[in-house]
Amino acid sequence: MNRNPTKMQFLFSMSFLFTLILCIAAFFYGVKYGTDQTEDKYSKQMQQWYAESHPGKYEQQDLVSFYHNVFWPYREFEIRWFDTLAKLSSNHHNAVDSLSKLQHTAQEHYKRITLVALPKDATDLTLAQANYAASLLRFHDGLKQIIRTSSQQNSKLDAAHIQQQTPIKEAMKLALKGQQQYYSSMLVWSRTQDDTIKQPSLKSKASLEQWQASSFAAKNKYIADYLYHQGVIKPYLPQDLTARLDQFTKQASRSSAAANKKSVDLTIKQLLSTNSVHAQDYSRVKGKLYQMDNIPLLPMFVE
């Protein structure tokens, strides 16, 4: 009997061996790819954790530069955003035209913000810049989607419907995060002026008594944290709510000592539910309530 392998057997053996080599190579490639992906994921998480736990150091000029080059371009868009939402209630208002202009504004201001170079050690400001830019980009994409859907379905556009769209909700959340980080940098700066400054913890449900003992910067940071966690975005800024809360606490302390034990969060909810906070509330009382505080010389605080 001929025991030499036939040509078919030889080809089968070689095919099997080649397939085995491919499987082994694919296995090790998969392991390497998975390892690289996992390392990249946790590297980014560690970078984010480090950035948030090391807010950086700031000169007043850093805060001023950020105000003019990042915060104010976003704020200009935000003012137009709320103005447009208010006008949508008018039957004679051209909603598509207004939203198209708003979409263009979001795109232009996004470009402005992303071109800004910040100091390398200004961690909070860098994160705030990224979130404000991402917010404008989501506003742009969301408005584009809303306009297209409205044109296709010939549907009426109203403020409530627009604000419930997923890209818009994401845009607002990103803006609140950017705001939180900007006000965090102000608190870091204020501590370089006075290292005794402490911030009431949002988790500890600070009392009005603790609130009154806090600095202006710490109060604003507390408010920015609260607005972010509650998802509250309104035409006013954190210092406007701070001012209304300070007015409330001063009045309450005169009427009852027990009022000082009341929760800050509960008081904020009361002010918000009664629409008691408005843009420029801070400006109306700044000369009376905040003359002794270390406040960065930003236009929104001094003009």
Describe, in plain words, how this protein is organized in 3D.
- There is one protein chain.
- By secondary structure, the chain is mainly alpha-helical.
- The chain folds into two domains: 57-193, no CATH class; 198-303, no CATH class.
- It is built from twelve helices and no strands.
- The protein has helices at 7-53, 60-87, 95-114, 123-153, 159-163, 166-193, 208-212, 216-230, 238-255, 264-273, 281-289, 299-302.
- Helix 2 packs antiparallel against helix 3 and helix 3 (95-114) runs antiparallel to helix 4.
- The longest helix has 47 residues, at 7-53.
- The chain is extended, with a radius of gyration of 28 Å.
- The termini are far apart.
Structure summary:
The protein is mostly helical.
Q: Key features?
A:
303 residues, mainly alpha, 2 domains, 12 helices, 73% helix, extended
Order of helices and strands: HHHHHHHHHHHH
Number of helices: 12
Low-confidence stretches: 41-54
Helix content: over 70%
> Proportion of β residues?
under 5%
- Average residue-wise pLDDT: 84
Helix-strand makeup class: mainly alpha
What is the topological layout?
Blueprint: H1 7-53, H2 60-87, H3 95-114, H4 123-153, H5 159-163, H6 166-193, H7 208-212, H8 216-230, H9 238-255, H10 264-273, H11 281-289, H12 299-302
